[in-house]
Amino acid sequence: ITILAIESSCDETSAAVIKDGKVLNNIIANQKIHEIFGGVVPEHASRAHQQNIVPVIATALKEAGVSKKDLNAIAFTRGPGLLGSLLVGTSFAKAFALGLDVPLIEVNHMQAHVLAHFIDEPTPKFPFLCLTVSGGHTQIVLVKDFLDMEIIGQTQDDAVGEAFDKTAKMLGLPYPGGPMIDKLAKEGNPLAFSFPEVVMSGYNYSFSGIKTAFLYFLKEKKQENPNFIEENLNDICASMQHALIHILLIKLKKAARDLKINEIAIAGGVSANSGLRKALQDLALKEKWNIYIPDFQYCTDNAGMIAIAAHYKYLAGQFSSQDVIPLARMSF
Ligand code: ATP
Ligand code: MG
Ligand code: FE
């Protein structure tokens, strides 16, 4: 079974080919245009998807040595994401499936972030907990089976990726800020500064409070010393990253203990963060967890994860009809 998968939910145009459960490639076109604006501009994103989608898919098929007539299904991200961006991938997938007379498979982007763990060995055993941390979401997911998962906790306001990106913006760093904070934090002292951490009920999160606290912290320090940021950049990044990771892991630990689950995974763009990876490894030793951390290319948005999700949906016979429409908000 050979499936072409397309991802276009935000600002990455990506295509992947999967054959009998093995992801053959993962072609990703990043959109440079958003750097100028310091964030993703939806209108520019959908236009860039339109420009990228044909060459990205052509490259994926060619590299995999697969021709159009070899395809058994076309998969695409239905949501959640930017509607204009999702429309490009969805429309292409529908037209392609119709033209080739093969089934269409819709994929939930957040489920796909979780299922990225099944692309390569080792794979987590069911049931496992997945902390999905990305630009738009922060969730603790109880994963009972490939297509059976439940969100047991999530952010009530900002996502943790957003907190990373906004912190970077306040520090005058370029977009996307997460990877930059990660890099600078490596040279800094994580205990140099502390920020108030709001603890939510259950397994929920909140990141808007710490973001505001950080804004006032910078304001105050800059009044005392106009060069405060320049002189303390590494320490500021290390301290903020440390606080964000601490918040993330408290709830993950609570969920794992309450549910008595020791198979623990992380997914999404922020799972690329080296501080989070290290902190998770340390915690795993104490809690006796088996942890699963995705390969870097499968942390941020990619079609490889859409492809593996589509593979399981194909096996389960879950197909979409031609009247499927993309959804900016989509749960599971
Ligand atoms: P969602 O998946 O919620 O729809 P998204 O698709 O935009 O959102 P991803 O592509 O999964 O999100 O992740 C992007 C986010 O990951 C950005 O906020 C980015 O700053 C963050 N990120 C990427 N690498 C790192 C890193 N090394 N450290 C911290 N954050 C990072
Ligand atoms: Mg992105
Ligand atoms: Fe994502």
TrEMBL record:
Its EC number is 2.3.1.234. Substrate binds at T132, V133, S134, G135, G136, D165, G178, D182, N273. GO terms for biological process: tRNA threonylcarbamoyladenosine modification. It is found in: Cytoplasm. Fe cation binds at H109, H113, D301. Pfam families: TsaD (PF00814). One of its GO terms (molecular function) is iron ion binding. Residues 22-307 form the Gcp-like domain. One of its GO terms (cellular component) is cytoplasm. Binds 1 Fe(2+) ion per subunit. It is an enzyme of class 2 (transferase). Its cofactor is Fe(2+). Keywords: Acyltransferase, Cytoplasm, Iron, Metal-binding, Transferase, tRNA processing. It catalyses: L-threonylcarbamoyladenylate + adenosine(37) in tRNA = N(6)-L-threonylcarbamoyladenosine(37) in tRNA + AMP + H(+). NCBIfam families: gcp_kae1, T6A_TsaD_YgjD, T6A_YeaZ. Required for the formation of a threonylcarbamoyl group on adenosine at position 37 (t(6)A37) in tRNAs that read codons beginning with adenine. Is involved in the transfer of the threonylcarbamoyl moiety of threonylcarbamoyl-AMP (TC-AMP) to the N6 group of A37, together with TsaE and TsaB. TsaD likely plays a direct catalytic role in this reaction. Belongs to the KAE1 / TsaD family. This is tRNA N6-adenosine threonylcarbamoyltransferase. The lineage of its organism: Bacteria, Pseudomonadati, Bacteroidota, Cytophagia, Cytophagales.
